[in-house]
């Protein structure tokens, strides 16, 4: 998993390995490791798997080497 912006801050790491078969399971594992602060960010974040936008509940199977990216909304210009 790769965390960006506020997700990185909430997790306390820029990326980590998570052993999960699906997106929802991977996110649940991340929350188990990092707590409520990350869960709050995940509620509003966009998710990418291998560069493709997905929803938390998509029945997409993760395989070895899949990259889940957590992108919270951010302001900028």
Automatic annotation (TrEMBL):
Matches recorded under SUPFAM superfamilies: MoaD/ThiS
Domain of life according to the entry: Bacteria
Annotated signal peptide: none
Pfam families, per database record: ThiS
Protein name, UniProt field: Molybdopterin converting factor small subunit
Organism: Motilibacter rhizosphaerae
Highest classification ranks of the organism: Bacteria, Bacillati, Actinomycetota, Actinomycetes, Motilibacterales
């Amino acid at each position: 998993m790769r965390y960006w912006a506020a997700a990185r801050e909430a997790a306390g790491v820029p990326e980590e390995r998570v052993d999960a078969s699906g997106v929802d399971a991977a996110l649940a594992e991340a929350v188990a490791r990092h707590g409520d602060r990350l869960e709050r960010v995940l509620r509003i974040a966009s998710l990418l798997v291998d560069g493709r936008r997905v929803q938390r509940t998509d029945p997409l199977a993760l395989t070895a080497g899949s990259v889940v990216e957590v992108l919270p909304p951010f302001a900028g210009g």
